[in-house]
Design a protein that fits this description.
Distance between the termini: 19 Å
Number of helices: 10
Shape: flat
Order of helices and strands: HHHHHHHHHH
Helix content: over 70%
Number of strands: 0
Radius of gyration: 20 Å
Length: about 270
């Protein structure tokens, strides 16, 4: 780990610089700053990938099992999504907010241990658990993008309602496009979370038996799945749209955050 630590530290510095250049472009609509930010983000992604590969080479498992590894992988996923959005869709404001979240998550990973006790690691190292964690992280990334789009939707909706014709308003995508993309992110996140929960339940049953149903995080995860499923149903069946849909999306993400916090009360998620 020490041999690759410099990659991790350099990644944080470059990520911070990328976010600052994106912020400059966000305020001043500076095309040169946007290009520099994109270049720095590409370097960050390469460094994160190199660090991740070094971890895979040094460890006997796919490194997404500790909270440090989980947060790092989540940040890598967001950086990947940012590059795709920046290159193909050119939604600058969305890229900026995604990178802010990715940078914060990467910094937070510094405060958690990189390894767990060997005896505990032997329990959690399994392909089933790896797939469960990976898919769950990807679903959270989809929900995070949906949240950002909903916040942008509410921001533009409020500006239009108050007739605030600022340069920021012209840079935002249309309300319809943001609502559609937010909905599609939820359409991606819900089945992935459902699959992750099925795999997690199988693993928990094999390791802990029926007692896993008494774990509060299991029920919180079911509540998250229910909240986003209702959101999809309301939009498709009852034609919810606009501000109401965006507000409910924020409420669903709040439940997701509570689910993350419920880890402290979980019996078999303490390894996080």
């Amino acid at each position: 780990m020490a041999d690759a630590r410099w990659i991790y530290d350099l990644t944080i510095f470059l990520y911070a610089a990328s976010v600052l250049f994106y912020f400059n472009d966000f305020l001043l609509r500076n095309r040169k700053a946007n290009l520099i930010a994109f270049g720095l983000l590409a370097v960050v992604w390469l460094l994160q990938t190199a660090f991740f590969v070094s971890q895979m080479a040094a460890k006997e498992y796919f490194p997404v099992l500790t909270l440090f590894e989980t947060l790092f992988f989540y940040s890598w996923v967001l950086a990947t999504v940012s590059l795709v959005i920046n290159y193909f869709f050119r939604i600058d404001l969305l890229v900026f907010f995604v990178n802010v979240i990715g940078f914060v998550v990467l910094v937070l990973s510094m405060f958690f241990p990189e390894t767990t006790p060997l005896a505990q690691m032997k329990v959690i190292v399994s392909e089933l658990l790896f797939i469960h964690i990976t898919i769950a992280i990807l679903s959270y990334a989809a929900f995070s993008l949906s949240l950002i789009l909903s916040v942008m939707f509410l921001l533009q909706h409020n500006m239009l309602k108050q007739k605030k014709w600022s340069p920021l308003l012209r840079r935002l995508p249309s309300l319809g496009k943001m609502e559609l993309f937010s909905h599609r992110m939820n359409m991606v996140g819900v089945p992935m979370l459902f699959l992750a929960m099925i795999l997690g339940a199988i693993w928990a049953y094999l390791v802990h038996g029926n007692s896993f149903w008494l774990d509060p995080k299991v029920w919180m995860s079911l509540l998250v799945l229910l909240a986003y499923s209702i959101l999809l149903y309301k939009r498709s069946a009852e034609k919810w749209q606009g501000r109401k849909l965006a507000v409910w999306n924020l409420a669903a993400f709040s439940i997701l955050l509570l689910n993350v916090l419920s880890t402290d009360f979980s019996k078999f998620h303490q390894w996080l």
